[in-house]
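pasting input
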Amino acid sequence: MDKTFAARRRRDLIIAAVLAALAALAPLLIKDVYVQNILILTLMYAALSQSWNILSGYCGQISLGHALYFGIGAYTTELLFTKFGVLPWFGMLAGGVIAAVIAMGLGYPFFRLRGHYFVIATIVIAEIGLLLFQNWEWAGAAMGITIPVRGDSWLKFQFMRSKLPYFYFALALCSLAWFVTWWLEDSKWGFWWRAVKDNPEAAESLGVVVFNSKMGAAAVSAFLVAVGGAFYAQFLAYIDPESVMGFQFSLLMALPAVLGGIGTLWGPVLGAAILIPMTELTRSYIGGSGRGVDLIVYGALIVLISLALPQGLVSLFSRTKAKGATR
Amino acid sequence: MGLLYGLIAVGLALIFGLMDVVNFAHGEFLMIAMYASFFLFAFFAIDPLLSAPLVAAALFVFGAVVYLLVVRFAMRAKANAGMVQIFSTFGLAIVMRGLAQFFFTPDYRSIPQSWLGGKTISVAGIFLPEPQLIGALVSIAAFACLYFFIHRTDFGRALEATREDPGAVALVGIDKNRVFALGWGLGAALVGLAGAIMAVFFYIYPDVGASFALIAYVTVALGGFGSVFGAFAGGIIVGLVEAVTALVLPPSLKSVGIYAVYLLVVFIRPRGLFGSM
Protein backbone atom coordinates (compact mmCIF):
# COMPACT_ATOMS: atom_id res chain seq x y z
CA MET A 1 0.00 0.00 0.00
CA ASP A 2 2.71 2.41 1.02
CA LYS A 3 4.69 1.67 -2.08
CA THR A 4 1.75 2.20 -4.39
CA PHE A 5 0.93 5.45 -2.60
CA ALA A 6 4.45 6.73 -3.17
CA ALA A 7 4.34 5.51 -6.76
CA ARG A 8 1.04 7.22 -7.32
CA ARG A 9 2.42 10.47 -5.93
CA ARG A 10 5.46 10.29 -8.21
CA ARG A 11 3.20 9.61 -11.16
CA ASP A 12 0.95 12.55 -10.22
CA LEU A 13 3.95 14.85 -10.12
CA ILE A 14 5.14 13.72 -13.54
CA ILE A 15 1.68 14.11 -15.06
CA ALA A 16 1.40 17.59 -13.56
CA ALA A 17 4.81 18.61 -14.94
CA VAL A 18 3.88 17.35 -18.41
CA LEU A 19 0.50 19.11 -18.30
CA ALA A 20 2.09 22.37 -17.14
CA ALA A 21 4.70 22.16 -19.90
CA LEU A 22 2.01 21.49 -22.52
CA ALA A 23 -0.05 24.37 -21.15
CA ALA A 24 2.99 26.65 -21.33
CA LEU A 25 3.32 25.82 -25.03
CA ALA A 26 -0.38 26.35 -25.73
CA PRO A 27 -0.09 30.06 -26.61
CA LEU A 28 2.19 29.12 -29.51
CA LEU A 29 -0.81 27.49 -31.16
CA ILE A 30 -3.62 29.60 -29.76
CA LYS A 31 -3.44 33.17 -30.98
CA ASP A 32 -7.08 34.02 -30.56
CA VAL A 33 -7.46 36.55 -27.75
CA TYR A 34 -10.91 35.33 -26.81
CA VAL A 35 -9.68 31.76 -26.34
CA GLN A 36 -6.62 33.01 -24.43
CA ASN A 37 -8.96 34.87 -22.14
CA ILE A 38 -10.91 31.69 -21.40
CA LEU A 39 -7.66 29.83 -20.75
CA ILE A 40 -6.50 32.49 -18.28
CA LEU A 41 -9.79 32.38 -16.40
CA THR A 42 -9.76 28.59 -16.40
CA LEU A 43 -6.28 28.51 -14.90
CA MET A 44 -7.19 31.16 -12.36
CA TYR A 45 -10.30 29.32 -11.21
CA ALA A 46 -8.37 26.06 -11.12
CA ALA A 47 -5.87 27.75 -8.79
CA LEU A 48 -8.62 29.27 -6.64
CA SER A 49 -10.55 26.07 -6.46
CA GLN A 50 -7.40 24.17 -5.57
CA SER A 51 -6.83 26.59 -2.70
CA TRP A 52 -10.46 26.35 -1.59
CA ASN A 53 -10.10 22.59 -1.69
CA ILE A 54 -7.36 22.71 0.96
CA LEU A 55 -9.73 24.04 3.62
CA SER A 56 -13.04 22.70 2.38
CA GLY A 57 -12.05 19.50 0.64
CA TYR A 58 -9.17 18.12 2.67
CA CYS A 59 -10.06 19.60 6.03
CA GLY A 60 -13.81 19.33 5.45
CA GLN A 61 -14.69 22.87 6.55
CA ILE A 62 -17.06 23.88 3.76
CA SER A 63 -16.59 27.60 3.19
CA LEU A 64 -18.86 29.58 0.91
CA GLY A 65 -17.25 32.86 1.90
CA HIS A 66 -13.88 32.67 0.18
CA ALA A 67 -14.90 35.65 -1.94
CA LEU A 68 -13.89 37.67 1.11
CA TYR A 69 -10.24 36.63 0.78
CA PHE A 70 -10.37 37.06 -2.98
CA GLY A 71 -11.64 40.60 -2.50
CA ILE A 72 -9.10 41.36 0.20
CA GLY A 73 -6.29 40.28 -2.10
CA ALA A 74 -7.64 42.45 -4.89
CA TYR A 75 -8.30 45.48 -2.70
CA THR A 76 -5.03 45.35 -0.77
CA THR A 77 -3.06 45.25 -3.99
CA GLU A 78 -4.94 48.06 -5.67
CA LEU A 79 -5.25 50.32 -2.64
CA LEU A 80 -1.52 50.04 -2.00
CA PHE A 81 -0.80 50.64 -5.69
CA THR A 82 -3.13 53.58 -6.31
CA LYS A 83 -2.81 55.31 -2.94
CA PHE A 84 0.79 54.62 -1.99
CA GLY A 85 2.43 53.53 -5.22
CA VAL A 86 3.46 50.17 -3.83
CA LEU A 87 4.22 47.69 -6.61
CA PRO A 88 1.52 45.05 -7.15
CA TRP A 89 4.01 42.28 -6.37
CA PHE A 90 4.34 43.49 -2.80
CA GLY A 91 0.63 44.25 -2.65
CA MET A 92 -0.04 40.69 -3.69
CA LEU A 93 2.05 39.32 -0.84
CA ALA A 94 0.60 41.82 1.61
CA GLY A 95 -2.92 40.87 0.49
CA GLY A 96 -2.11 37.21 0.98
CA VAL A 97 -0.70 37.78 4.45
CA ILE A 98 -3.62 40.01 5.49
CA ALA A 99 -6.11 37.44 4.19
CA ALA A 100 -4.32 34.65 6.06
CA VAL A 101 -4.32 36.68 9.27
CA ILE A 102 -8.01 37.51 8.87
CA ALA A 103 -8.77 33.86 8.11
CA MET A 104 -7.09 32.86 11.36
CA GLY A 105 -8.77 35.65 13.29
CA LEU A 106 -12.13 34.53 11.96
CA GLY A 107 -11.24 30.91 12.46
CA TYR A 108 -10.89 31.50 16.15
CA PRO A 109 -14.66 31.84 16.73
CA PHE A 110 -15.80 30.14 13.50
CA PHE A 111 -14.23 26.76 13.93
CA ARG A 112 -16.39 26.03 16.92
CA LEU A 113 -19.35 25.93 14.55
CA ARG A 114 -20.37 22.76 12.80
CA GLY A 115 -22.08 21.87 9.55
CA HIS A 116 -24.63 24.31 8.21
CA TYR A 117 -23.96 26.82 10.97
CA PHE A 118 -20.38 27.09 9.76
CA VAL A 119 -21.35 27.35 6.09
CA ILE A 120 -23.87 30.10 6.78
CA ALA A 121 -21.39 31.96 8.98
CA THR A 122 -18.88 32.00 6.10
CA ILE A 123 -21.50 33.30 3.67
CA VAL A 124 -22.55 35.95 6.15
CA ILE A 125 -19.04 37.22 6.89
CA ALA A 126 -18.32 37.60 3.17
CA GLU A 127 -21.57 39.53 2.76
CA ILE A 128 -20.60 41.82 5.63
CA GLY A 129 -17.23 42.41 3.95
CA LEU A 130 -18.99 43.19 0.68
CA LEU A 131 -21.36 45.66 2.33
CA LEU A 132 -18.54 47.38 4.22
CA PHE A 133 -16.46 47.82 1.08
CA GLN A 134 -19.51 49.14 -0.77
CA ASN A 135 -19.80 51.85 1.88
CA TRP A 136 -16.12 52.60 2.39
CA GLU A 137 -15.59 55.96 0.70
CA TRP A 138 -11.78 55.96 0.84
CA ALA A 139 -11.66 52.62 -0.98
CA GLY A 140 -13.92 53.91 -3.74
CA ALA A 141 -17.17 52.60 -2.19
CA ALA A 142 -19.50 51.01 -4.74
CA MET A 143 -17.76 52.82 -7.62
CA GLY A 144 -14.60 50.80 -7.18
CA ILE A 145 -11.07 51.60 -8.25
CA THR A 146 -9.77 52.02 -11.76
CA ILE A 147 -6.15 50.99 -11.99
CA PRO A 148 -4.12 53.68 -13.78
CA VAL A 149 -2.31 52.58 -16.91
CA ARG A 150 1.44 52.97 -16.52
CA GLY A 151 2.57 51.04 -19.55
CA ASP A 152 3.38 47.39 -20.00
CA SER A 153 5.94 46.04 -17.60
CA TRP A 154 6.59 43.03 -15.44
CA LEU A 155 7.64 45.39 -12.67
CA LYS A 156 4.16 46.88 -12.43
CA PHE A 157 2.53 43.63 -13.54
CA GLN A 158 0.47 45.45 -16.09
CA PHE A 159 0.05 44.49 -19.73
CA MET A 160 -2.27 46.12 -22.19
CA ARG A 161 -1.05 44.87 -25.52
CA SER A 162 -0.91 41.17 -24.89
CA LYS A 163 -2.60 38.80 -22.52
CA LEU A 164 0.25 36.32 -22.57
CA PRO A 165 2.03 37.48 -19.40
CA TYR A 166 -1.24 37.08 -17.51
CA PHE A 167 -1.56 33.63 -18.96
CA TYR A 168 1.87 32.62 -17.69
CA PHE A 169 1.22 34.08 -14.26
CA ALA A 170 -2.10 32.24 -14.01
CA LEU A 171 -0.35 29.05 -15.07
CA ALA A 172 2.33 29.59 -12.44
CA LEU A 173 -0.28 30.28 -9.75
CA CYS A 174 -2.25 27.20 -10.72
CA SER A 175 0.92 25.08 -10.66
CA LEU A 176 1.86 26.55 -7.29
CA ALA A 177 -1.57 25.80 -5.80
CA TRP A 178 -1.42 22.30 -7.21
CA PHE A 179 2.09 21.74 -5.93
CA VAL A 180 1.25 23.04 -2.46
CA THR A 181 -1.69 20.65 -2.35
CA TRP A 182 0.47 17.80 -3.60
CA TRP A 183 3.12 18.54 -1.07
CA LEU A 184 0.68 18.93 1.82
CA GLU A 185 -1.19 15.78 0.90
CA ASP A 186 1.68 13.63 2.13
CA SER A 187 2.73 15.88 5.01
CA LYS A 188 1.75 15.64 8.63
CA TRP A 189 -0.80 18.40 8.00
CA GLY A 190 -2.43 16.55 5.14
CA PHE A 191 -3.04 13.49 7.27
CA TRP A 192 -4.28 15.60 10.14
CA TRP A 193 -6.74 17.39 7.90
CA ARG A 194 -8.24 14.22 6.54
CA ALA A 195 -8.52 12.86 10.07
CA VAL A 196 -10.28 16.05 11.16
CA LYS A 197 -12.66 15.78 8.20
CA ASP A 198 -13.55 12.16 8.82
CA ASN A 199 -13.96 12.27 12.56
CA PRO A 200 -12.81 15.23 14.63
CA GLU A 201 -13.39 13.53 17.98
CA ALA A 202 -11.37 10.48 17.05
CA ALA A 203 -8.62 12.67 15.60
CA GLU A 204 -8.47 14.74 18.77
CA SER A 205 -8.19 11.63 20.91
CA LEU A 206 -5.27 10.42 18.80
CA GLY A 207 -3.37 13.62 19.46
CA VAL A 208 -4.29 15.73 16.44
CA VAL A 209 -4.81 19.30 17.56
CA VAL A 210 -8.02 19.76 15.59
CA PHE A 211 -8.25 23.49 16.11
CA ASN A 212 -4.70 24.20 14.92
CA SER A 213 -5.15 21.94 11.91
CA LYS A 214 -8.20 23.92 10.83
CA MET A 215 -6.35 27.19 11.38
CA GLY A 216 -3.42 26.02 9.24
CA ALA A 217 -5.71 24.96 6.42
CA ALA A 218 -7.61 28.25 6.59
CA ALA A 219 -4.42 30.33 6.46
CA VAL A 220 -2.88 28.51 3.47
CA SER A 221 -6.19 28.52 1.66
CA ALA A 222 -6.86 32.23 2.27
CA PHE A 223 -3.32 33.25 1.29
CA LEU A 224 -3.49 31.53 -2.10
CA VAL A 225 -6.99 32.81 -2.82
CA ALA A 226 -5.92 36.38 -2.00
CA VAL A 227 -2.99 36.11 -4.42
CA GLY A 228 -5.54 34.99 -7.00
CA GLY A 229 -7.61 38.05 -6.16
CA ALA A 230 -4.61 40.33 -6.64
CA PHE A 231 -3.98 38.74 -10.02
CA TYR A 232 -7.61 39.16 -11.06
CA ALA A 233 -7.55 42.85 -10.12
CA GLN A 234 -4.46 43.47 -12.26
CA PHE A 235 -5.97 41.44 -15.08
CA LEU A 236 -9.21 43.40 -15.13
CA ALA A 237 -7.53 46.75 -14.34
CA TYR A 238 -10.72 47.74 -12.60
CA ILE A 239 -12.32 46.53 -9.38
CA ASP A 240 -15.47 47.24 -7.46
CA PRO A 241 -16.85 45.38 -4.44
CA GLU A 242 -19.42 43.34 -6.34
CA SER A 243 -16.95 42.27 -9.04
CA VAL A 244 -14.28 40.94 -6.66
CA MET A 245 -16.19 40.08 -3.49
CA GLY A 246 -19.58 38.95 -4.74
CA PHE A 247 -21.06 35.66 -3.64
CA GLN A 248 -20.58 34.24 -7.13
CA PHE A 249 -16.83 33.98 -6.51
CA SER A 250 -17.36 31.85 -3.44
CA LEU A 251 -19.42 29.55 -5.62
CA LEU A 252 -17.09 29.59 -8.58
CA MET A 253 -14.28 28.50 -6.26
CA ALA A 254 -16.33 25.68 -4.80
CA LEU A 255 -17.99 24.40 -7.95
CA PRO A 256 -14.94 23.14 -9.88
CA ALA A 257 -13.71 21.23 -6.84
CA VAL A 258 -17.14 19.75 -6.24
CA LEU A 259 -17.68 18.80 -9.87
CA GLY A 260 -14.18 17.45 -10.29
CA GLY A 261 -14.04 15.71 -6.93
CA ILE A 262 -13.89 17.41 -3.58
CA GLY A 263 -10.89 16.62 -1.42
CA THR A 264 -8.93 15.16 -4.31
CA LEU A 265 -5.70 16.34 -5.86
CA TRP A 266 -6.97 16.50 -9.44
CA GLY A 267 -10.60 17.38 -8.81
CA PRO A 268 -10.31 21.19 -8.92
CA VAL A 269 -8.15 21.26 -12.07
CA LEU A 270 -10.39 18.81 -13.87
CA GLY A 271 -13.54 20.59 -12.70
CA ALA A 272 -12.25 24.01 -13.75
CA ALA A 273 -11.08 22.71 -17.12
CA ILE A 274 -14.64 21.63 -17.86
CA LEU A 275 -16.75 24.14 -15.97
CA ILE A 276 -15.09 27.47 -16.81
CA PRO A 277 -14.92 27.07 -20.62
CA MET A 278 -18.48 25.76 -20.46
CA THR A 279 -19.62 28.80 -18.49
CA GLU A 280 -17.87 31.23 -20.82
CA LEU A 281 -19.03 29.51 -23.99
CA THR A 282 -22.67 29.19 -22.94
CA ARG A 283 -22.57 32.81 -21.86
CA SER A 284 -21.21 34.11 -25.14
CA TYR A 285 -23.04 31.79 -27.53
CA ILE A 286 -26.49 31.45 -26.03
CA GLY A 287 -26.43 34.02 -23.25
CA GLY A 288 -26.42 36.99 -25.62
CA SER A 289 -30.18 36.88 -25.91
CA GLY A 290 -30.34 38.06 -22.30
CA ARG A 291 -33.08 35.55 -21.73
CA GLY A 292 -31.29 33.26 -19.34
CA VAL A 293 -30.89 30.19 -21.56
CA ASP A 294 -27.25 29.99 -20.47
CA LEU A 295 -28.37 29.88 -16.85
CA ILE A 296 -30.80 27.06 -17.59
CA VAL A 297 -28.14 24.94 -19.30
CA TYR A 298 -25.54 25.73 -16.66
CA GLY A 299 -27.81 25.01 -13.70
CA ALA A 300 -29.14 21.81 -15.25
CA LEU A 301 -25.58 20.53 -15.75
CA ILE A 302 -24.71 21.26 -12.12
CA VAL A 303 -27.78 19.34 -10.97
CA LEU A 304 -27.07 16.41 -13.27
CA ILE A 305 -23.38 16.12 -12.45
CA SER A 306 -23.89 16.43 -8.72
CA LEU A 307 -26.64 13.80 -8.79
CA ALA A 308 -24.94 11.39 -11.17
CA LEU A 309 -21.40 11.64 -9.80
CA PRO A 310 -21.50 12.51 -6.11
CA GLN A 311 -17.77 11.97 -5.84
CA GLY A 312 -16.98 14.16 -8.80
CA LEU A 313 -15.56 13.48 -12.22
CA VAL A 314 -12.35 12.12 -10.73
CA SER A 315 -14.32 9.07 -9.63
CA LEU A 316 -14.70 8.12 -13.29
CA PHE A 317 -10.96 7.55 -13.53
CA SER A 318 -10.59 5.64 -10.29
CA ARG A 319 -13.51 3.41 -11.24
CA THR A 320 -11.90 2.28 -14.46
CA LYS A 321 -8.61 1.85 -12.64
CA ALA A 322 -10.25 -0.29 -9.98
CA LYS A 323 -11.68 -2.48 -12.71
CA GLY A 324 -8.28 -2.81 -14.32
CA ALA A 325 -6.76 -3.82 -11.00
CA THR A 326 -9.19 -6.67 -10.46
CA ARG A 327 -8.58 -8.08 -13.88
CA MET B 1 -41.75 42.22 7.99
CA GLY B 2 -40.24 40.02 10.65
CA LEU B 3 -43.30 37.84 10.62
CA LEU B 4 -43.01 37.39 6.87
CA TYR B 5 -39.33 36.50 7.25
CA GLY B 6 -40.56 34.03 9.83
CA LEU B 7 -43.03 32.53 7.36
CA ILE B 8 -40.36 32.12 4.67
CA ALA B 9 -37.98 30.64 7.20
CA VAL B 10 -40.54 28.24 8.63
CA GLY B 11 -40.94 26.64 5.20
CA LEU B 12 -37.18 26.18 5.01
CA ALA B 13 -36.96 24.91 8.57
CA LEU B 14 -39.73 22.41 8.00
CA ILE B 15 -37.87 20.86 5.09
CA PHE B 16 -34.59 20.90 6.96
CA GLY B 17 -36.03 19.50 10.15
CA LEU B 18 -37.72 16.73 8.26
CA MET B 19 -34.75 15.41 6.39
CA ASP B 20 -31.63 17.40 7.08
CA VAL B 21 -31.63 18.99 3.64
CA VAL B 22 -31.09 22.70 3.18
CA ASN B 23 -33.05 23.82 0.16
CA PHE B 24 -30.82 26.32 -1.60
CA ALA B 25 -33.60 27.02 -4.08
CA HIS B 26 -35.88 28.37 -1.37
CA GLY B 27 -35.50 31.96 -2.54
CA GLU B 28 -36.48 30.87 -6.03
CA PHE B 29 -39.60 29.23 -4.64
CA LEU B 30 -40.44 32.64 -3.26
CA MET B 31 -39.76 34.25 -6.62
CA ILE B 32 -42.07 31.77 -8.41
CA ALA B 33 -44.80 32.48 -5.87
CA MET B 34 -44.48 36.22 -6.44
CA TYR B 35 -44.74 35.75 -10.20
CA ALA B 36 -47.72 33.45 -9.79
CA SER B 37 -49.44 36.09 -7.73
CA PHE B 38 -48.53 38.76 -10.27
CA PHE B 39 -49.88 36.85 -13.24
CA LEU B 40 -53.09 35.90 -11.48
CA PHE B 41 -53.55 39.59 -10.90
CA ALA B 42 -52.53 40.70 -14.37
CA PHE B 43 -54.57 38.18 -16.34
CA PHE B 44 -57.50 37.36 -14.13
CA ALA B 45 -57.59 40.45 -11.94
CA ILE B 46 -57.58 38.33 -8.81
CA ASP B 47 -56.31 40.34 -5.90
CA PRO B 48 -53.14 38.89 -4.32
CA LEU B 49 -54.96 38.54 -1.05
CA LEU B 50 -57.54 36.22 -2.63
CA SER B 51 -55.07 34.39 -4.81
CA ALA B 52 -52.72 33.66 -1.91
CA PRO B 53 -54.35 30.28 -1.13
CA LEU B 54 -54.21 29.39 -4.83
CA VAL B 55 -50.55 30.33 -5.00
CA ALA B 56 -49.85 28.33 -1.85
CA ALA B 57 -51.62 25.32 -3.36
CA ALA B 58 -49.65 25.65 -6.60
CA LEU B 59 -46.38 25.88 -4.67
CA PHE B 60 -47.40 22.82 -2.68
CA VAL B 61 -47.59 20.80 -5.89
CA PHE B 62 -44.39 22.38 -7.14
CA GLY B 63 -42.48 21.56 -3.96
CA ALA B 64 -43.64 17.95 -4.03
CA VAL B 65 -42.64 17.62 -7.68
CA VAL B 66 -39.19 19.09 -6.98
CA TYR B 67 -38.72 16.53 -4.24
CA LEU B 68 -39.75 13.64 -6.46
CA LEU B 69 -37.69 14.76 -9.46
CA VAL B 70 -34.49 16.05 -7.85
CA VAL B 71 -34.13 15.83 -4.12
CA ARG B 72 -35.16 12.18 -3.88
CA PHE B 73 -32.10 11.30 -5.93
CA ALA B 74 -29.83 13.66 -4.03
CA MET B 75 -30.82 11.82 -0.84
CA ARG B 76 -29.53 8.58 -2.28
CA ALA B 77 -25.96 9.80 -2.66
CA LYS B 78 -23.72 7.71 -0.49
CA ALA B 79 -20.65 9.93 -0.58
CA ASN B 80 -20.48 13.67 0.02
CA ALA B 81 -24.21 13.72 0.75
CA GLY B 82 -24.10 17.27 2.08
CA MET B 83 -22.33 18.67 -0.97
CA VAL B 84 -24.64 16.84 -3.36
CA GLN B 85 -27.67 18.32 -1.65
CA ILE B 86 -26.23 21.83 -1.59
CA PHE B 87 -25.21 21.80 -5.21
CA SER B 88 -28.20 19.98 -6.66
CA THR B 89 -30.63 22.41 -5.02
CA PHE B 90 -28.33 25.26 -5.92
CA GLY B 91 -28.20 24.15 -9.55
CA LEU B 92 -31.97 23.99 -9.44
CA ALA B 93 -32.05 27.57 -8.21
CA ILE B 94 -29.96 28.69 -11.20
CA VAL B 95 -32.23 26.81 -13.58
CA MET B 96 -35.31 28.41 -12.05
CA ARG B 97 -33.77 31.86 -12.30
CA GLY B 98 -32.88 31.18 -15.94
CA LEU B 99 -36.40 29.95 -16.68
CA ALA B 100 -37.89 33.01 -15.05
CA GLN B 101 -35.68 35.24 -17.19
CA PHE B 102 -36.66 33.27 -20.27
CA PHE B 103 -40.39 33.31 -19.77
CA PHE B 104 -40.99 36.44 -17.73
CA THR B 105 -38.07 38.61 -19.02
CA PRO B 106 -35.76 40.34 -16.52
CA ASP B 107 -38.06 43.37 -16.23
CA TYR B 108 -39.10 44.63 -12.83
CA ARG B 109 -42.79 44.20 -12.28
CA SER B 110 -45.13 45.23 -9.57
CA ILE B 111 -48.80 44.93 -8.80
CA PRO B 112 -50.06 48.48 -9.18
CA GLN B 113 -53.52 48.47 -7.72
CA SER B 114 -54.38 45.88 -5.19
CA TRP B 115 -56.93 46.23 -2.45
CA LEU B 116 -54.27 46.86 0.07
CA GLY B 117 -51.39 48.47 -1.80
CA GLY B 118 -50.28 51.81 -0.45
CA LYS B 119 -52.99 52.17 2.16
CA THR B 120 -52.15 52.81 5.72
CA ILE B 121 -54.06 52.20 8.86
CA SER B 122 -53.76 54.14 12.04
CA VAL B 123 -53.51 52.25 15.27
CA ALA B 124 -53.30 54.37 18.40
CA GLY B 125 -51.71 57.19 16.50
CA ILE B 126 -49.11 55.03 14.69
CA PHE B 127 -49.53 54.69 10.97
CA LEU B 128 -48.96 51.19 9.68
CA PRO B 129 -48.92 50.21 6.03
CA GLU B 130 -51.86 47.91 5.50
CA PRO B 131 -50.24 45.22 3.31
CA GLN B 132 -47.51 44.63 5.87
CA LEU B 133 -50.07 44.45 8.65
CA ILE B 134 -52.20 41.91 6.78
CA GLY B 135 -49.01 40.02 5.96
CA ALA B 136 -48.19 39.84 9.64
CA LEU B 137 -51.68 38.59 10.49
CA VAL B 138 -51.62 35.98 7.74
CA SER B 139 -48.21 34.83 8.95
CA ILE B 140 -49.44 34.37 12.48
CA ALA B 141 -52.52 32.52 11.26
CA ALA B 142 -50.44 30.29 8.99
CA PHE B 143 -48.05 29.52 11.80
CA ALA B 144 -50.90 28.66 14.14
CA CYS B 145 -52.37 26.32 11.52
CA LEU B 146 -48.99 24.69 10.97
CA TYR B 147 -48.51 24.19 14.67
CA PHE B 148 -51.92 22.59 14.96
CA PHE B 149 -51.24 20.52 11.87
CA ILE B 150 -47.96 19.08 13.10
CA HIS B 151 -49.14 18.31 16.58
CA ARG B 152 -52.76 17.30 16.14
CA THR B 153 -53.24 15.47 12.85
CA ASP B 154 -52.25 12.01 11.66
CA PHE B 155 -50.14 13.41 8.89
CA GLY B 156 -48.36 15.71 11.31
CA ARG B 157 -47.54 12.74 13.49
CA ALA B 158 -46.33 10.79 10.49
CA LEU B 159 -44.08 13.76 9.69
CA GLU B 160 -42.64 13.81 13.19
CA ALA B 161 -42.20 10.04 13.21
CA THR B 162 -40.44 10.02 9.86
CA ARG B 163 -38.09 12.68 11.10
CA GLU B 164 -37.31 10.63 14.19
CA ASP B 165 -36.56 7.44 12.33
CA PRO B 166 -37.23 7.01 8.61
CA GLY B 167 -36.40 3.31 8.81
CA ALA B 168 -38.83 2.49 11.56
CA VAL B 169 -41.82 4.26 10.00
CA ALA B 170 -41.54 1.97 7.01
CA LEU B 171 -42.32 -0.92 9.37
CA VAL B 172 -45.62 0.61 10.39
CA GLY B 173 -46.65 1.18 6.83
CA ILE B 174 -45.76 4.82 6.22
CA ASP B 175 -44.25 5.53 2.83
CA LYS B 176 -41.15 7.63 3.52
CA ASN B 177 -41.13 9.16 0.06
CA ARG B 178 -44.74 10.23 0.34
CA VAL B 179 -44.16 11.92 3.68
CA PHE B 180 -41.05 13.69 2.38
CA ALA B 181 -42.86 14.82 -0.76
CA LEU B 182 -45.70 16.19 1.34
CA GLY B 183 -43.20 17.87 3.65
CA TRP B 184 -41.56 19.58 0.69
CA GLY B 185 -44.98 20.56 -0.57
CA LEU B 186 -45.90 22.04 2.76
CA GLY B 187 -42.62 23.94 3.05
CA ALA B 188 -43.10 25.32 -0.46
CA ALA B 189 -46.73 26.22 0.27
CA LEU B 190 -45.64 28.33 3.25
CA VAL B 191 -43.12 30.25 1.20
CA GLY B 192 -45.79 30.51 -1.49
CA LEU B 193 -48.11 32.23 0.95
CA ALA B 194 -45.34 34.62 1.94
CA GLY B 195 -44.55 35.29 -1.73
CA ALA B 196 -48.17 36.04 -2.58
CA ILE B 197 -48.37 38.68 0.14
CA MET B 198 -44.96 40.16 -0.61
CA ALA B 199 -45.90 40.50 -4.28
CA VAL B 200 -48.06 43.42 -3.19
CA PHE B 201 -45.26 45.57 -1.90
CA PHE B 202 -42.03 44.35 -3.53
CA TYR B 203 -40.82 44.54 -7.08
CA ILE B 204 -40.89 41.18 -8.80
CA TYR B 205 -37.91 40.13 -10.92
CA PRO B 206 -36.06 36.87 -11.59
CA ASP B 207 -33.34 37.45 -8.99
CA VAL B 208 -35.63 38.64 -6.24
CA GLY B 209 -35.34 35.34 -4.39
CA ALA B 210 -31.61 35.64 -3.84
CA SER B 211 -31.93 38.72 -1.66
CA PHE B 212 -34.39 37.00 0.65
CA ALA B 213 -32.83 33.56 0.58
CA LEU B 214 -29.73 34.50 2.56
CA ILE B 215 -31.86 36.21 5.18
CA ALA B 216 -34.03 33.07 5.31
CA TYR B 217 -31.00 30.83 5.94
CA VAL B 218 -29.73 33.19 8.59
CA THR B 219 -33.17 33.23 10.16
CA VAL B 220 -33.42 29.46 10.28
CA ALA B 221 -29.89 29.08 11.64
CA LEU B 222 -30.52 31.83 14.17
CA GLY B 223 -33.58 29.99 15.46
CA GLY B 224 -31.70 26.71 15.31
CA PHE B 225 -31.91 24.08 12.58
CA GLY B 226 -34.63 21.56 13.19
CA SER B 227 -36.85 23.87 15.18
CA VAL B 228 -39.88 25.21 13.34
CA PHE B 229 -40.78 27.41 16.26
CA GLY B 230 -37.20 28.70 16.36
CA ALA B 231 -37.43 29.71 12.72
CA PHE B 232 -40.54 31.76 13.39
CA ALA B 233 -38.98 33.39 16.44
CA GLY B 234 -35.80 33.95 14.40
CA GLY B 235 -37.89 35.72 11.78
CA ILE B 236 -39.31 38.12 14.32
CA ILE B 237 -35.85 38.85 15.72
CA VAL B 238 -34.44 39.42 12.23
CA GLY B 239 -37.27 41.79 11.39
CA LEU B 240 -36.71 43.79 14.55
CA VAL B 241 -32.93 43.88 14.14
CA GLU B 242 -33.33 45.05 10.57
CA ALA B 243 -35.63 47.87 11.65
CA VAL B 244 -33.29 48.96 14.43
CA THR B 245 -30.17 48.83 12.22
CA ALA B 246 -31.95 50.88 9.59
CA LEU B 247 -32.36 53.62 12.19
CA VAL B 248 -28.72 53.60 13.30
CA LEU B 249 -26.77 52.87 10.11
CA PRO B 250 -27.22 54.04 6.50
CA PRO B 251 -29.91 51.97 4.72
CA SER B 252 -27.35 50.23 2.52
CA LEU B 253 -25.87 48.66 5.64
CA LYS B 254 -29.11 47.44 7.17
CA SER B 255 -28.36 43.75 6.53
CA VAL B 256 -25.08 44.04 8.45
CA GLY B 257 -27.06 44.18 11.68
CA ILE B 258 -28.84 40.91 10.85
CA TYR B 259 -25.58 39.19 9.98
CA ALA B 260 -23.83 40.50 13.07
CA VAL B 261 -26.63 39.27 15.32
CA TYR B 262 -26.45 35.85 13.68
CA LEU B 263 -22.70 35.62 14.27
CA LEU B 264 -23.09 36.80 17.84
CA VAL B 265 -25.79 34.22 18.57
CA VAL B 266 -23.96 31.26 17.09
CA PHE B 267 -20.69 32.19 18.80
CA ILE B 268 -22.47 32.08 22.12
CA ARG B 269 -24.76 29.21 21.24
CA PRO B 270 -23.39 27.23 18.28
CA ARG B 271 -26.69 25.47 17.64
CA GLY B 272 -28.89 28.53 17.37
CA LEU B 273 -31.45 29.75 19.85
CA PHE B 274 -33.82 26.78 19.86
CA GLY B 275 -31.80 24.22 17.92
CA SER B 276 -31.70 20.66 19.11
CA MET B 277 -29.12 18.92 16.95
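fyi Chain A touches chain B through 43 residues (CB under 8 Å).
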